[in-house]
Design a protein that fits this description.
By secondary structure, this protein is of the alpha+beta class. The chain is about 30% helix and about 20% strand.
């Protein structure tokens, strides 16, 4: 009864719809690829609720809704690349919600109404062998045909769980595009997967473990009525637990938008800068012992993990204070010396690499750096970075050492002129000298760091002296970590 007055009030009320635009995810970014819509036209939306996903060379992120209301129109389809500030969709005012959900609500009861009279819950799997034969139930064949050929894109478009486990009420699952792709290809409801990542994020290992466990019997063939009817359900599931279905050996898989942008950025950097690398060996024993000794109390006291990254960041800041040229950039025929150190920290993701930036890092103490780095890394993995989080960097640290390499030769992150690569920390026999001048063998925690620098601006002598300061800071660490 209240519905008829609702629509006219909205249409005549003068409430303007809100345009949804493609945001600029970095100062040098002029376009972005819309990779996925998280809502369909007619869906109700709350302000700041994730609305769509985009990919650029700097960030792969979820973009929140700019206003509450109903998604009235999608103007840019998934996979399209458009200029920043392009209108990609339209959100109608909150009052329009009565108009959009109204048709949807009558349809849902219609599908539900036939089900109670006839005990057709167990009957659903039965029609699946011959859904066309049963024309008396218009709603029932649709309910069967949607899950029966489990086409990933259809499932995503309808925002339904593919496997019919009882899902938690509207709970949003944190996961990467890779994880969701594996879930779609294997007919998995992500609300049933136990998450082990930061902030409740489902990792690739979580989803692959789940798939492997449910491929053992016939759990992927969980039917609507409990009958192991759909032989079709196991068929789309590749019998290769632990393998990503979209990247099987021998397959040619197109690069993701983010991967293509990273490739372009790296090639452009090699073409732009005269890359040179210097490598230093560092005895990290003092830092390692300090961290091991203080770690438990520090984390209990400060409420965040104590990693090695703030040690590296503080050492870099000490080096930049003495050699500010490594915190510069090329501007035409000039060199721009930056007044602040905006420290980029490379974060490895399941679907690529991203470099969020700790702004004004020189103003932060050890604890402030640890908190800022941890927060940015978590937001990067959960696709919660803002455009400002990935721009304005003046120097970058990348830490592949957590994966075990001795050292690497990283590519400079343009328009910067230097990047520090951190190698793994290994127990190594070394020769030391006692106060009397006698040499002896000892076991030390040894790490290698490498500086990639632009020889157009930074000379080898400067790079090595900068690394010398970084080394001294780490070897002779005497700073209070708070």
């Amino acid at each position: 009864m209240d519905q008829p007055p609702g629509p006219p009030a909205v249409s005549a009320g003068g409430i303007m719809p809100t345009d949804v635009i493609m945001p600029q995810m970095g100062e040098s970014i002029v376009e972005g690829t819309l990779t996925k819509w998280l809502k369909k036209p007619g869906d109700k939306i709350q302000r700041d609720e994730p609305l769509f996903e985009i990919s650029t060379d700097k960030v792969d992120a979820e973009i929140p809704a700019p206003a509450s209301g109903v998604l009235k129109e999608i103007k840019v389809s998934e996979g399209a690349t458009v200029q920043v500030n392009t209108v990609v969709g339209v959100i109608d005012a909150e009052g329009a919600a009565a108009a959009a959900p109204a048709p949807a609500k009558p349809e849902a009861p219609k599908a539900a109404a036939p089900a109670p009279p006839a005990p057709s819950a167990p009957a659903r799997p039965a029609p699946s062998p011959s859904p066309a034969a049963r024309k008396g139930d218009g709603a029932r064949p649709q309910a069967v045909t949607a899950p029966e050929p489990p086409k990933p894109r259809e499932a995503v478009a309808r925002q339904e769980s593919v496997i019919e486990f009882p899902s938690e009420e509207g709970q949003r699952v944190r996961s990467s595009p890779l994880v969701r792709r594996i879930a779609r290809d294997n007919n998995v409801d992500l609300t049933q997967v136990t998450a082990s990542g930061l902030g409740g994020r489902i990792t690739k290992e979580d989803i692959l473990r789940f798939v492997e466990q449910h491929q053992a019997g016939a759990p992927t063939a969980v039917a609507v009525g409990g009958r192991p009817a759909p032989a079709a359900a196991p068929q789309p599931v590749p019998a290769m637990p632990g393998a990503v279905p979209a990247a099987l050996p021998g397959d040619l898989v197109p690069m993701s938008t983010m991967r293509k942008k990273i490739a372009e950025h790296m090639v452009a950097s090699k073409r732009t800068s005269a890359h040179v690398h210097s490598v230093f060996e560092i005895d990290m024993t003092r830092v390692v012992k300090l961290r091991d000794r203080e770690r438990a109390d520090w984390e209990k006291r400060n409420g965040s993990k104590l990693t090695f990254m703030p040690f590296f960041a503080r050492a870099v800041l000490a080096g930049i204070r003495e050699w500010p040229i490594v915190n510069a950039s090329v501007d035409g025929d000039g060199i721009r010396y930056h007044s602040n150190v905006n420290l980029g920290i490379a974060v490895s993701l399941d679907w690529g690499l991203i470099v969020p930036v700790v702004k004004h890092a020189e103003e932060k103490n050890f604890l402030g750096l640890q908190r800022a780095i941890s927060e940015l890394a978590e937001r990067a993995r959960n696709k919660k970075l803002s455009p400002d989080d990935v721009q304005g960097g003046t120097f970058t640290i990348t830490n592949p050492g957590i994966y075990g390499p001795l050292f690497g030769t990283p590519i400079i992150n343009q328009p910067q002129v230097a990047i520090l690569g951190i190698g793994g920390i290994f127990k190594t026999p070394v020769v030391k000298t006692d106060p009397e001048g006698n040499d002896y063998f000892a076991v030390a925690h040894i790490m290698h760091i490498s500086l990639g620098y632009d020889h157009r601006v930074v000379d080898g002598a400067v790079a090595d002296q900068f690394l010398g300061v970084v080394k001294k800071k780490l070897v002779q660490w005497d700073e209070d970590i708070g």
